[in-house]
Write a structure and sequence with these properties.
77% helix; globular; 554 residues; mainly alpha
Length: 554
Amino acid sequence: MTTVPPRAAPDPVAPVAPVAPVAPVTAGPGAGRGDEKSGGSFLAKAALVTAVLSVAGSLLGLVRDQALAHFFGAGTDTDAFLVAWTLPELAATLLIEDGLAFFLVPAFSLALARRADAPATDPVHELVRASLPRMALWFAGTAVLLIAAAPYVVAVLAPGLPDPRLAVDCTRLTATCALTFGLTGYCSAALRAHQRFVAPATVYVAYNTAIIAALFALAAPLGVRAAAVGVAVGGALMAVVQAPSLWRQLRAAPVPSREKAATPDRSTSLQTAIIWTVLLFALCRQSQVLIERFLASSLPAGAISHLNYAQKVAQMPMALSLMLCTVTFPVVARALADGETERARKRVERDLVLAGCMVLLGTAAVIAAARPLIELLFQRGAFTARDTAATASVMRVYALGLLGHTLVGALARAHFSVARTTWIPLHAMVTGVVTTAGLGFLTVGTWGVRGIAGANAAGICVAALLLLRGMGPRTVAIRTRAVAGQLGRLVLAAAGAAALGALCAEQVAGPPVLAVLASFAAVTVSFVLLGLLLGAQPWASALRTVTGKLRHVR
């Protein structure tokens, strides 16, 4: 394992009593050293910049899916590419979004906290020298192995494909993501720990731009293989766009702390047990997609494509809601590294409620306007009205699990931010995957692809409940009942908003864009009003803030 030399100090994760009133935060042993960039103003700006760039990346991802649907529809060629697409999806979860970030961000945060104590050697440089070369070798070796084993990978992922040769060709191209996504994830984690968010937020802009360009330039001569070429090129661009920023951070001279308070002791950085718990958790989480593709490969042609398009659209609210947690994850990890458990608890509680609020608003909108939304986005070229109906019905079912997906992402960050071995996330995710697989096998014969989507929603919600229940003194001791109560109120508001939005969409005749706009407006207004009526915390807090500012102006 790679280790930064420890310093003697008290245990930073002492139990925090879950009392109802929030007590004022007292200065911990590291106060003043790690929070110069963790205030509300900085987090708001960082979240805004990250959200804008992430929206740009998501919109380009939507254009990517539209181009794929336009050129190849929802047939056998698209199914073949989407089997190969499983590798980038898995690599993104393991290496960019969850896996590497869950242990590298706390490791870099702890190294930065120790750097502030002005040791003889720079802990950050030691961490990079000890970890990056080894990881790069592992990434490269995995890519070579996947390229060589592409026929066997396809046979395992989708044994029901009528002609696997096209999927094998695409898989050999997308397998390069094991190296490029690994380097991308390492750069992203290091930069976020340094409180640098712009470069990591641009990666999907570069990635999706490359795929779109490849589709338009190479679709005629290469067919759907053009999309796989775009994946290979886009993966390399993701690492390239971050390299200059990371180089500048690593070259910067350490800034000594004004205080000489000892950093709390924590066995650190890249312990083997921590790495394995994180990677196994991320692998289990992504295995839901593997189960879906496996089950859908035995259904009629287009089933994998319908499920993919439904997921891509439905996941946009989830991706936006998790942007806040992505920005605050290094803040929570640094607070725990400095021993400030109360600050970490408050931050996690706020993140869970705000992320839940955002994703539930998006869930209501997606369910209410499913049919006109899919028609507006995809129904052109080879994507027919039948594909629209099938995709919309799947999306409504899949959207039922969006809150579960968001909570799993947010709670997993809280569990792993302590930079110590914890098996709770893996146990929760294994239980969720078993639930997904069991329900999927039971329902796919009767309900087809809708049964697969329902199994996904049920399994991820089970995992989210277990992760919420597992929050305690050894992680971040949040007030579970208070958070669950707030989320419950928001769920009721979202259910009412979805019903009203669906009624509104049905009453609008004409182009689908009118139905989408009318439905989204009805959902937004009703969600806010119902949230206020039910006393949901985000709306009540926002109302008090606005009222207070108006009084101040007077």
